[in-house]
Every structure is written in structure tokens, then in C-alpha cells.
What does this fold into?
Amino acid sequence: MKKEKLIIIAAPSGSGKTTIVKKLLSIELLNLGFSISSTTRTNRDNELDGEDYHFLSVDDFKEKIQNNEFVEWEQVYKNVYYGTTKSEIVRLNKKDKNIVFDIDVVGGLNIKKQFPETSISIFIKPPNLTELKNRLINRKTDSALSIESRLSKSESELTFSDKYDFVVINDNLQEAIEETKKIIHQFIIS
Ligand code: 5GP
It folds into this structure.
């Protein structure tokens, strides 16, 4: 269960984390596989079930909690659950992939605690809260209510950055990708 390296990438919603993760997954040298989380939120137009997330009903999600199928899970927003199943780690280990977790700030620390030797945690920080708000509005994937809920959470999420091994400020996307790539590369060759 602990064979490959685990790369934890956490950030408040709208920090550009998912964009960075998608780019990193395309870099062959890093040999990364994406841990597909389970969630009870509905899928966005561009998202596929079983690729971006496993989209579950609240009942199915709770059943998995009961069956102890999660490595970690959180109610990230009110009534919206997210979690990483043990089966994802097994699946990616079988493929000899280093595993990337796109995860909230609390879940990220939870994984780090369970795999202290084989994991690295990276916090992607937006330049400021105004920029974060603009990104959430401009990406046009969230309702006004969802944007409000995400923003109200961001402030407290930002206070978690000093608990992470590395902090990357996403001011310039290309530079943030390059910096994250270097951190991961150093870690997987060490
Ligand atoms: P979104 O709804 O924008 O895709 O994700 C909302 C937040 O939930 C993001 O911070 C995302 O990284 C986080 N998240 C995604 N998957 C997981 C997971 O498996 N566990 C936890 N704890 N958070 C997750």
C-alpha cells in the first residue's frame, strides 16, 4: 500500500490547483497517476464520472464510510462530501504510478499524517483573495451560492499553508507549474 510516492496538492478552491495538476499529469518524467476522489456534488459540464471524480449519492457515500473504504473523507462544504478511497491507492500502486491527490487543505494533512515517509505536501496559494474571487467568477462553473460558500471558506483554508512541506504561489501559472514540477521531481528521485 505504500510503495510509490504520494504527492498531495492542496489549496482553496479557485487557486488554479486543478489546472496545475492536469498539466503535471501530462509530464511523463514524473510518472504520475491521478487519485480519483469520490464526491456527492453534481458534475460540472466538463467533468466525467470515473475520470474527474466518482460522483456518488449521499447514501452511497455514507455506505462507503460505514464500510471503511476511505483513506480520508471530509464534508468540505455544507452537505457536500469528498473522499479518497483506499482502492484508488491500490489501483495506482498496481500501475507503478506516483499518486497525485487534488484535495482540500484538511484532507491533505490527513494523508500526510498517514504516509509521513512516502508523501510530500504542496500548498498552492492564490496571490490574494480578490484574485481568488475573480477566478471563481470567471471560470463560470459554480453557482453564486457555491462561489459564496467557497470564498467564505478560503480565508480559513489559507491559514493552513504553513503546515505544508512547500508553498507555491500561483501568480503566474507557467511559473507555478514549473516550480511544482521541480519540487515533485526532487522528491521522487530522492
Ligand atoms: P471541487 O468541488 O472544486 O472539485 O473541489 C472542492 C474541494 O474539495 C477542493 O479543494 C478539492 O481539492 C477538494 N477535494 C477533492 N477531492 C477530495 C478528496 O478526496 N478529499 C478531500 N478531503 N477533499 C477533496
User: Anything to note?
Assistant: The chain has one domain: 6-189.
